[in-house]
Amino acid sequence: MTVTHDLSIFSLITQASILVKLVMGLLALLSLTSWYWIFRKWFQIRAARSKTDQFERSFWSGSDLNILFQGASNGRHYTGSMERIFEAGYREFTKLRAKSHDPGATIDGARRAMRATFQREVDDLEAHLAFLASVGSVSPYIGLFGTVWGIMNAFRGLSNVGTATLTQVAPGIAEALVATAIGLFAAIPAVIAYNRYAHDIDRISIRFESFMEEFSNILQRHLR
To answer: For residue 80, is it within any domain?
Structure first.
């Protein structure tokens, strides 16, 4: 590794060993990918919350269930998660009510249909959160590996020097520590985003579950 007295960040990166450069490149790729999903999930969760609010206002305003169902069926690609849960439950309810005379079986079937749709919607919201969690937990260790390797090379380069001074040691250690800095830069936003989005999705999931219970009660009253 070439020792240089130029301690600018760019110089430290360019003067690093090949392995440390590969580590830095991997961390930069992980950081860029995590930022991509951070923004994607932010827009997705914001849209899910907005569509949930919109559907709840329509549902609890006293609109006819058949009209809401037709609207959900005709606008499938523009509906929100809660609207799709409602559509699945009401579709199964009307199908079973025409075939079965057992109110309990009809309600249970509607609940199962809503639960299946609920699980798919939550899985979609949670998609790629595991990647953010992995970046947040692994990136510091990848950066630490690059740092340890860089420091090893720095001291190996000094093995042939009779007297090692701070001027000789500092540049090699500084360029090695850049890998740790990049690892933290990749990890911290990913961890913050993961914790925030996991909390937001939990709150949205609770709203979905509350709606399913309330809607099941409404359907039960329709069978009386």
So the answer is: no
